[in-house]
Fold this sequence. Notes:
By secondary structure, the chain is mainly beta. The chain folds into 2 domains: 1-30; 35-195, Lipopolysaccharide (LPS) transport protein A like domain (lipopolysaccharide transport protein A fold), CATH 2.60.450. It has 1 helix and 11 strands. Strands 1, 2, 3, 4, 5, 6, 7, 8, 9, 10 and 11 form an 11-stranded antiparallel beta sheet that branches. It is elongated and about 105 Å long. The model is unreliable at 26-50 (pLDDT under 50).
Amino acid sequence: MKKNKIVKIFLINLFIIILLIFFFKKILKKPSTIINQNLNFEGPAAKNENSYSSNILENINYTSKDKNGNQYNINALKGEINFSESNVVYLSNVTAKITLKNSNQITITSDFAKYNSDTYDTTFSKNVIVSYLDNNLTGKYLDFLLSKNLMTMSEDVIYTTNKNILNADVIEMNIETKDTKIFMYEEDKKILIKSKS
């Protein structure tokens, strides 16, 4: 009789545990903006056509300040965190506002970006626009590397000021010193400068 009673108590407890598990997994499950999927990212990571496992985030905002006092704010409509590189976020529809110490604000917009949350280094791609004071810079790629104090805009670069329009392959600027190099990939091609007046 004791064995029969013990088995009944065990089965009742097992039934209650199964009900609780079902209740917590199915009924209390809350919708989340993080979705676990296998995806292909259309941006700098598009060169690798293999699927990878990632999390999708929506309406992203990263705000940070580095040890030198530079402030970095980046917003995106969507982002993906690759499980193998959790410090790297692939972003789309991106706007960044960067305020360097002792300098004016730089605004950057692009279709895509690859943001490293450890170093704050960001590679912007496709329809990149940089606005600084009355100057605009457009191109296909922008590497904004705070870790190296370097900003490099490349491919179909157009630099527009109040007075001139400059076309080049690459514009490279030291963020700290503001030293700038403008050059073409091929030696026989020239940098084009047009006056607006």
